[in-house]
Amino acid sequence: MGARVKVACVGGGPAALYLSILLKRQDPSHDITVHERNPAGSTYGWGVTYWGGLLEKLRDGDPESARAVSEHSVRWSDGVAHVGDRTTVHHGDEGFGIGRHRLLDILATRAQSLGVRVEFEREITDAAQLPDADLVVAGDGVRSALRERHSGHFGAEVTLGRNKYIWLGTTKVFDSFTFAFVETAHGWIWCYGYRFSDEKSTCVIECSPETWTGLGLHEASEADGLALLERLFAGPLDGHRLIGRAQSDGSAQWLNFRTLTNRTWHRGNVVLLGDAAHTTHYSIGAGTTLALEDAIALAGALRKSPELGPALAGYERERRAALLSVQSAARYSAQWYENLPRYIGLDPAQMFALLGQRHSPLLPHIPPQLYYRIDRAAEQLEPLRRMKRWLGPRVARTLHGRSQASRN
Questions:
Q1: Distance of alpha carbon 75 from the chain centroid
Q2: CA-to-CA distance for 347 and 369, rounded, in angstroms?
Q3: Distance between CA atoms of 32 and 136, rounded to whole angstroms?
Q4: Predicted confidence band at 306 (pLDDT cuts at 50, 70, 90)?
Q5: Torsions phi, psi of 255, nearest 5?
């Protein structure tokens, strides 16, 4: 991409802000504006998770913002699972949490310090509103207005998950990444809890649609719904409150997860970024990481190619290839929770071990206790470990191919 280009980023999420930072660092003469429809300081969600590998990539891209992200993150290394009154602990890799509001503030401040204009309360729904832009980056989320303006070209497909979930905050500060499974008269309901500051944690609660309606959550007010959930999870929450929305812009909503794919990611000078291009189920905690990696890849492609068309095509090829294994893992992770009764009766240590293996394409096709024994044996025997590594991707590709064929 040549010198002095005019870039318009639509949507002020982490990916668009980080892309603006990277492009300004590549060439300070670039004219870059980030257009965000919401007021400054307003954001949905609570905390986001990431792993150490992302920090290394952020340090390579912009050491200053990476340092600020690291300084404002909290860390954990253990996972804890509560199944009824039984508890098991798993010692794993170090994970990180940071408040979404804090992350956006860090990136916006850094972008502005480099000369990026960040315009709040500026809604863009059509690239025609930006006639002078050489590049329009659609970072406006899963329901991207820019993408939907040319939906026939981009070919978006949305698959709704079966389970219901709600994204909440809590004043309980979890020391470890915490899973809690509670049995009710209407089936199991569970939460994922992780801290993102020294005062608050995220708490995502999920259940089958039958449990959701059986508990009356489909017709409960927000206050009554939160009170019920606080009673159900009183143990893991230690009596702490659940909080609906970080901002006062409406109540927290029960949703079905929307897995989004697109046939293509670019059209003319418009390119999709982050959730506008793809989504992966929240249970693998990779959404923010993947969006930031999109920004890194797009900045790299624009740096390498003087022509916009080949740069956008190269970016799409690179990210599609990188996403294949992650999207497969996310599909199987979501299915694991949708098939929870298959695993919930296991001994807690076995159940937690299979929770950690939920990304495996082999797991749905092998009896859980047999899979557990094979998995433990594979840790001791290198030939079994090699076979498992060889077989898993092949099963995933075969099943994915069948799924695509049935859709077509």
A1: 18
A2: 10
A3: 10
A4: confident
A5: -135, 165
Bridge-based pairing of strands 74-83 and 177-184 is parallel
CA-only gyration radius of the chain, Å: 22
Q: Count how many Cα atoms sit within 13 Å of the Cα of residue 376 in the half-sphere of its side chain.
A: 11
Q: What is the pLDDT of residues 331-356, one digit of tens each?
A: 999 999 999 999 999 988 899 889 98
- 285: exposed, middle or buried (Cβ count in 10 Å: 0-12, 13-18, 19+): buried
Number of CB atoms found within 10 A of residue 122's CB: 15
Q: Do the Cβ atoms of 154 and 263 come closer than 8 Å? A: yes
- pLDDT tens, position by position, 250-293: 578 999 999 999 999 999 999 999 999 999 999 999 999 999 99
Predicted confidence band of residue 248 (pLDDT cuts 50, 70, 90): very low
pLDDT one-digit tens code per residue, 26-49: 999 999 999 999 988 777 779 999
Phi then psi for residue 169, to 5 deg, are -110, 170
Between the alpha carbon of residue 277 and those of residues 146, 280, 294, 323, the distances in Å are: 11, 11, 9, 11
pTM, to two decimals: 0.91
Is residue 291 within 8 Å of residue 14, measured between CB atoms? yes
Strand partners, 87: 82
Residue 45 vs residue 111, higher pLDDT: 111
Query: Nearest CA to 104 among 162, 44, 22?
Result: 44
